[in-house]
Design brief:
- Helix 15 runs parallel beside helix 18.
- The strands form two sheets. Strands 1, 2, 3, 4, 5, 6, 7 and 8 form an eight-stranded mixed β-sheet that branches. A two-stranded antiparallel ribbon has the order 9-10.
- Strand 4 and strand 5 form a beta hairpin.
- Among the domains are: 122 residues, Butyryl-Coa Dehydrogenase, subunit A, domain 1 (Orthogonal Bundle); 101 residues, Butyryl-CoA Dehydrogenase, subunit A, domain 2 (Beta Barrel); 126 residues.
- It is globular.
- By secondary structure, it is α+β, with helices and mostly antiparallel strands.
Length: 566
């Protein structure tokens, strides 16, 4: 079974220790039960029990400590393993996932820095069960790190005094190491340093959210810093900030996959066992369609996110394709998660508001993910930088097999300079599309060919390239091409049912048409460009036998296979 089922956990792990971590985590949540999880959510209860569990089992220590600094032989930063843990946490609740996510962000500048003593200190804190924080954003400037107001003033004796505030910082209430980004007052150079949330000159101003999480505003008031607390300076500090986000944003898609999977189980259990007008709800044609669409979109989300992990793990200074695929997980997978929840909610209706349903949490929390680690718009603006080389300068790369070996992902903490995105080359996307002879895959490929022709013959002019509204629509079309490519690559690896693959591309054809229509309607679109947009609009192939096969063998088959312990 491709989707996570905690009652029958079948994901492959190459080592027993990894499997035990996942099984113990599932057992923790199932033993806690849905009622307690919902009660803690409604009461905004700090998740001390989860943190204690993680500490006792040394889970964060095993999963988040690079092999070189691990206190245990199983410690490594293994993206294949981590995405499975991401999915499990998302499945049971975003609050639990969040403390893991912001710990990843907080650790990024530490593992990327050159201060070996701080790395050893972080490893010991992980061993002791600590969680971490990432002090980047500010109330006035958001994630505009050019404008950071956190300042380190040299004192003439080799020490510094830090002054300034950070805003929207998860775990900043308890983290013993808060990786904090600022500027040196004398040179204007960027700097990353660590602060201790328990220090007397560290002011915890408030929790800025009404949730289980503690998302802090904190201020440093003449906070003393020595070179011993400095992680990086200058360009290295800048690169650490962006490269940490490169590592962290990937996880948001997995939180979405986990939440949507749990919501799907609840929704289909409810609908399949409910009768209206002398029929089961799942007998209504429109309900079947919504469930099938939701399922196909969810499987596509997971296929894409898993394939992206392969490119992250195989990355090197000569192969940085992950820098396109990674923000796609953050941007595309999270927005698809919203689509999935919307479809399911339209089926279960008022049931989705009920306080004892996991769905009630998922419907609320799924909205957060597209807005964290850079908005959807920010990430689209990033990925369009790759579009010229992606379409018009394909390079030769060897086939990339699944990357599930139990090894440390060293390169993620040695990514180097963040410049030169426009020079990154990609393999020919047509290789993936040509590997399938399925009606909707071919229809989608035809739409993509028109988009490429659009870019070559009706190339956006300078004014359009500066028109964010225009670029957003164009970026959505480009994103779908990349999305489809990696879905097909991974469908081959997982030997997915052809009927399901074609059903996935049913919605891909429809979505491509939708965004083509949006581009057609943009104020700055020219008549020539509008004509190309019209040619991109198409109707997905209708195959009743394929549709019924997917419904019976994949979607309806989920009925009653999972329900969380009460």
């Amino acid at each position: 079974m491709f989707l996570l089922n905690p009652k029958d956990h079948q994901r492959h792990y190459p080592d027993e220790e990894s499997r035990q971590i996942m099984e113990k985590t599932i057992a923790f949540f199932e033993n806690k039960g849905k009622a307690r999880i919902k009660e803690d959510d409604h009461e905004r209860t700090w998740y001390a029990d989860f943190i204690e569990f993680v500490k006792d089992e040394k889970i964060f220590s095993t999963l988040l400590t690079p092999e070189k600094y691990g206190k245990d032989e199983n410690a490594r930063w293994d993206t294949w393993r981590n995405c499975g843990f991401n999915e499990i946490l998302g499945f049971y609740g975003l609050a639990y996932w969040y403390t893991w996510q912001v710990s990843i962000l907080g650790l990024g500048p530490i593992w990327m820095g050159k201060n070996e003593a701080l790395k050893e200190k972080a490893a010991q804190h992980l061993e002791d069960g600590a969680i971490f924080a990432f002090g980047l954003s500010e109330q006035e400037h958001g994630a505009d790190i050019y404008s950071t107001s956190m300042k380190l003033a040299p004192q003439g004796d080799g020490s510094y005094l830090a002054n300034g505030a950070k805003y929207y910082i998860g775990n900043a209430n308890v983290a013993p190491m808060v990786s904090t980004f600022g500027k040196l007052t004398d040179s204007g150079d960027y700097v990353f340093f660590v602060a201790d949330s328990q220090h007397e000159n560290y002011e915890l101003v408030k929790n800025v959210t009404n949730s289980q999480n503690y998302v802090a505003e904190y201020a440093l008031r003449n906070y003393p810093i020595t070179e011993d607390e400095i992680l990086s300076k200058g360009q290295d500090a800048w690169d650490s900030a962006l490269n940490t986000v490169n590592v962290g944003k990937y996880n948001l898609g997995w939180a979405s996959v986990g939440m949507c999977t749990h919501a799907l189980y609840e929704a289909i259990n409810h609908a399949a066992n409910r009768r209206l007008y002398k029929m089961h709800v799942t007998d209504f044609p429109h309900v079947k369609q919504m469930f099938t669409d939701a399922y196909a979109r969810l499987v596509a989300m997971k296929l894409f996110a898993l394939r992206t992990a392969d490119y992250m793990r195989a990355a090197s200074a000569d192969d940085r394709r992950y820098l396109l695929y990674n923000p796609m997980v953050k941007m595309k997978v999270t927005t698809q998660g919203e689509e999935v929840i919307n479809l399911l909610w339209d089926v279960i209706a008022a049931k989705g508001f009920e306080k004892d349903m996991f769905f009630e949490m998922a419907a609320r929390d799924i909205r957060a993910l597209p807005k964290l680690e850079g908005t959807v718009h920010v990430n689209i603006a990033l990925i369009v930088k790759f579009m010229p080389n992606y379409f018009f300068a394909p390079a030769e790369y060897p086939d990339l097999p699944q990357q599930n070996s139990p090894v440390n992902d060293d390169f993620l903490f040695d990514q180097g300079a963040t410049r030169g995105l426009g020079k990154i080359l990609f393999h020919d996307y047509n290789i993936a599309f040509n590997s399938y002879d399925l009606p909707n895959v071919k229809l989608f490929q035809e739409q993509v060919a028109v988009l490429k022709e659009f870019l070559a013959m009706a190339t956006p002019d300078e004014a359009q390239r500066k028109d964010i509204d225009f670029l957003m629509a164009l970026g959505e079309l480009f994103a779908l091409v990349v999305y489809g490519q990696l879905i097909l690559e991974n469908a081959k690896i997982y030997e997915m049912d052809d009927a399901l693959v074609d059903q996935i591309f049913d919605f891909m054809v429809r979505d491509f048409s939708k965004f083509a229509l949006q581009l057609y309607g943009k104020p700055s679109s020219t008549a020539e460009q509008m004509a190309f947009c019209q040619r991109m609009i198409g109707k997905a192939n209708v195959d009743e036998a394929r549709y019924q096969k997917v419904w019976q063998e994949h979607v309806y088959a989920l009925k009653d296979i999972y329900e969380m312990n009460p």
